[in-house]
Specification:
Elements (H helix, E strand, L loop, with lengths): L1 H23 L2 H9 L6 H9 L5 H12 L6 H9 L4 H13 L6 H9 L4 H9 L2 E4 L3 E4 L4 E13 L10 H17 L4 H6 L2 H9 L8 E16 H63 L4 H29 L8
Antiparallel strand pairs: 1-3, 2-3, 3-4
Helix pairs in contact: 4-5, 4-6, 6-7, 6-8, 9-11
Amino acid sequence: MASLIGSGFLLVIIIAAVMLFLHFVPLGLWISALAADVRVSIITLVGMRMRRVPPAQIILPLIKANKAGLDVQVNQLEAHYLAGGNVDKVVDALIAAHRAQIPLPFERSAAIDLAGRDVLEAVQMSVNPKVIETPVVSAVAKNGIELKIKARVTVRANIDRLVGGAGEPTIIARVGEGIVTTVGSSESHNDVLANPDDISKTVLGKGLDAGTAFEILSIDIADVDVGRNIGAELQTDQAEADKRIAQAKAEERRAMAVAKEQEMKAYTQEMEAKVVEAQSEVPHAMAQALREGKLGVMDYYNLNNIQSDTDMRNSISQSGAGDKLAPQQPVTK
């Protein structure tokens, strides 16, 4: 019984040792490399395990590159993996560039991949150009008419400028700027509608692909729509603003006139109050003059006669004015 337990324990140890050995020494991968005529030593594979590099992610792309006729070394692929790159995509890009006869060394391909760009997509775009559609660009001609333009830009990736070159948003922004400039320099929107290819020629002549990762092949105007009459709207807004300013100034003058009128009414009421007050002092003054002998009795009577005569004349003049204004009544017999 003890010998049986000891044999089972020994078997487990042997199996664990074999599994550990196969983990550090990938014999299957080594045999696949030999079959593909790729010379890789067992020590190199063990070193990859020790450096925590999955051997399959290095050996399989190496086999693919060797079959495509590329001269790629194990150390290059391992260094690129340790730098955080995508080894498989870099090798695919090298193979695609080699088949398309595009000069692309491994160092440049690795640099493009480490820069965060899709190197395989860049190579594919070099072979098959890409069409970028701009959003609707609003531009106003000199006659004030708005045009809404949509363009399609055909670009091809420039391998030499992929590292450090601007991307698609820059191309779209520059094309939009060129459209606005071309339409804005046109005397009439009808000129743009009649010759939309002038926009393409002007924009292409500006060299908008300078400093970008692309090469512009063509710019095609996809759609041109007539928008609002911006000039008329601006004139209407200006007229409305002028009218509001004039109304505000007129309201200010009216308020000043009302305030002046109120001031004059207050002044008139004050003067009338002073007159009434002065008139109320007249009898007291006359009585004082009579007492002091400064005013005789005959003088007092003469003053009363003059006042009565004045009142009568006023009454006659008012009644005469009323007779002229009143309509005549028919006389009945």
